[in-house]
């Protein structure tokens, strides 16, 4: 379910999708993101080899990740922004998000977040650690899904992806996912070389960005939807890249 939902990798469909399977898929989301992270890293490395401008390499890498995830999270970000900007009425906001067509708020948010991501990754490439920054951002962005689906986080609707995964991950498991990502960043990034503490800070900022959007959506919408999950992924990616942009 993790690979089939979050990537274009062809895998057998799970026999039954219940809360146990859904929760496991959210926990394994960083694993499913490894192929996407590898593609982004290869593109950044190739761009450096042939002398592409750093901004172009960053745009190509992030574009490949979007293509490899069917634009799922970008679509969720735009729909979430439209819903939050449409009305303070919860039912109205959810209806706007359900329609799926992007309005001015969603488009503006999408453009701004992509500019932040691309500019930040461009800075990381210029600083000499773009490969590590791209890989860590992609994996951490998917890691926050376990946080967004932790026990106690409700679903905004009684149906849909959000209802299937909301509250399906034990809090301690979500904490373990964070610890593994932070610990891995602290161990691996010094090889580039980037200080170990910057790896911790980058993962922490990625989680903080997702937490802020998650808290806002829970207050305004009453919980999470599939769109909210996608939005949290994209703002987390932006946060990690900003932390490693210099």
Task: Report on the architecture of this protein.
There is one protein chain. With 246 residues, the chain is an all-alpha fold. It has one domain (1-10, 18-71, 110-244). The chain has 13 helices and no strands. Helix 8 (104-126) packs across helix 9 (130-148). It is globular. The N and C termini lie far apart (36 Å).
CA gyration radius, whole angstroms? 17 Å
Number of domains: 1
| Spans where pLDDT lies below 50 across 5 or more residues | none
The N- to C-terminal Cα distance equals 36 Å
**Major sheet: size, sense and barrel closure?**
none
The average pLDDT is 93
Helix content: over 70%
Oligomeric assembly: single chain
Kindly list the characteristics that best describe this protein.
246 residues, mainly alpha, 13 helices, transferase, cell membrane
């Amino acid at each position: 379910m993790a690979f089939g939902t979050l990537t274009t990798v062809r895998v057998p469909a799970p026999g039954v999708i219940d809360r146990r399977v859904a929760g496991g898929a959210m926990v394994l989301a960083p694993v499913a993101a490894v192929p996407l992270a590898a593609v982004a890293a290869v593109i950044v490395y190739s761009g450096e080899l042939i002398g592409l401008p750093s901004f172009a390499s960053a745009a190509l890498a992030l574009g490949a990740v979007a293509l490899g995830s069917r634009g799922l999270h970008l679509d969720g970000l735009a729909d979430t922004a439209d819903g939050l900007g449409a009305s303070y009425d919860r039912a109205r906001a959810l209806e706007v998000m359900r329609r799926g067509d992007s309005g001015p708020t969603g488009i503006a948010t999408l453009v701004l977040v992509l500019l932040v991501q691309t500019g930040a990754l461009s800075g990381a490439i210029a600083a000499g650690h773009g490969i590590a920054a791209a890989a860590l951002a992609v994996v951490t962005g998917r890691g926050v899904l376990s946080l967004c689906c932790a026990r106690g986080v409700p679903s905004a609707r009684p149906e849909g992806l959000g209802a299937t995964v909301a509250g399906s991950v034990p809090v301690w498991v979500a904490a373990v996912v964070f610890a593994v990502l932070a610990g891995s960043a602290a161990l691996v990034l010094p090889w580039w070389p980037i200080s170990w503490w910057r790896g911790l800070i980058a993962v922490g900022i990625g989680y903080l960005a997702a937490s802020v959007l998650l808290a806002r959506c829970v207050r305004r919408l009453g919980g999470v939807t599939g769109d909210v999950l996608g939005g949290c992924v994209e703002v987390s990616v932006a946060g990690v890249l900003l932390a490693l942009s210099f």
